[in-house]
Amino acid sequence: MSRPPRKLSALHARLEERGLLLDAVPAKGASAEAVVVSSPVTHDSRSVVPGGIFVAIHGAVRDGREFAAEAIGRGAAALITTREIQGSSVPQLLVHDARAALAEAAAWWEGDPAEGLIAIGVTGTDGKTTTSTLLASALSGAGIPTGLVSTALRRVGGRQSAPPAHQTTPEAPELQEALRAIADASDRAAVIEATSHGLALDRVGAIPFAAGILTNLTRDHLDFHGSVEAYHEAKLRLVAAIRSSSASRAAGLVPTIVLPTDYPAAEPFANAAAAAGIRIARFGVGGDGSLLINGVAHRVELAMPGHVNALNAAAALTLIDAWNLPLTPAIAAVAAEPGPPGRAERIDAGQPFTVLVDFAHTGASMQAAMEIARELRAARGRLLVVTGAAGERDPGRRTAIGAAVAGADVGWIAEEDPRFEDSDRIAAEIVAAIEAKRISADTPRIAIEHDRRAAIGAAIGEARPGDVVLLAGKGHERTIERRGADEPWDEAGVAREVLRSLGYPRDR
Q1: 84 inside domain
Q2: What CATH number does the domain containing 42 carry?
Q3: Beta carbons of 109 and 43 less than 8 angstroms apart
Q4: What does pTM read for this prediction?
Q5: Residue 146 is inside which H or E element, if any?
Q6: Contact 410, 434 (CB under 8 A)
Q7: pLDDT tens across 404-454, in order?
């Protein structure tokens, strides 16, 4: 949907008010007052259309200022940059922080859609996508139509779609565009999966979160953050983003953070929230499997199996309770929610064993996925696992995944997203971790099969009645990254193909 043209001077004033503006460099005969912005804001010079704004951010490899000439050639009406770009023929707004300015400019262009929404951010190492999905269903069940922006699902006006492959929290322009679509669809709230990248890189900047949820906190993404401390600090930024929007104030909703009970890693969040006057709500799961919602036990039969999904459901429902929204219909909505694709997703073609597709790609998420798998197998059933680990990412993941897989009966180590890293090396590190945790000489039996399709075929082909086959690591993702190319991939689709080849006709 097109937006009405706006004067650059309005953005100039906004950046100045936010303390981001250093200076403004007008072009010959074109002051900020005279320039009209008629197209979206972008940080990608290839996406510039005439009348738009190009924000020169410093990427992982290249400085965005290198692409300013291309952006101008494509019709950029103005530039936002941290340092003046010599020879520019368009006005420049010089800022302290290009990423923070990108978020503000994107929100400005889209008309600040988050102000008209009750926005909730969900962060944590594992469980973000499932908790986000459950929360969107809970809010809708409680009478607040809710949109969703997660790594596995987009939900706008009740319609679901798949997001781009291999994306965490989208960059600010795409995220603000998604929020505008949610607001225009008459949704009243938006649940946003706030990854550590999204928080650290200000992708969720300029969004007034009415509430936040922390699912859990271990270690991950050290290839990006550099240390566990920096990773945790990135997550902690969600607390600082919690404040009232126009919509949440109108609804009488108190800024709230939802945290796990008796969880030491959550205490910095609790301390920061208390200092900021943000309400703290707690969730957990009782020894009998009941959901602990602000300390009160509720027996809920969930469609999604496993202790970890009980925790995810408890987190979502705790916010409903903290805001005094109707809890009974919210519980019903959560109980019926099948969950997002690629999260303990059952592939059922009428076979006498269970096939699960799960995005588990950390040690903790692998442990959780295997726990679910064990609950589903028959008394004498085996657990067969296909897994791997991404290349050019935190190598600690490989050790943690291997340690978890050591509890399987049979395992296949396959390519996940090797990128430019040697697949043999990745597999060897996983196997070494398995060997270090091996309980007996017989468990697990491990094979290295880099071809993921072949590994899935071998696992399903070996399955016997009562077994569970867990396909872990890819989940909902639609590509495998290999040598700079994104090769099409569909984990659930491959599993169905294998089952059909084995004569199982019932395909769902």
Answers
A1: yes
A2: 3.40.1390.10
A3: no
A4: 0.87
A5: strand 146-149
A6: no
A7: 999 999 999 999 999 999 999 999 999 999 998 876 666 789 999 999 999
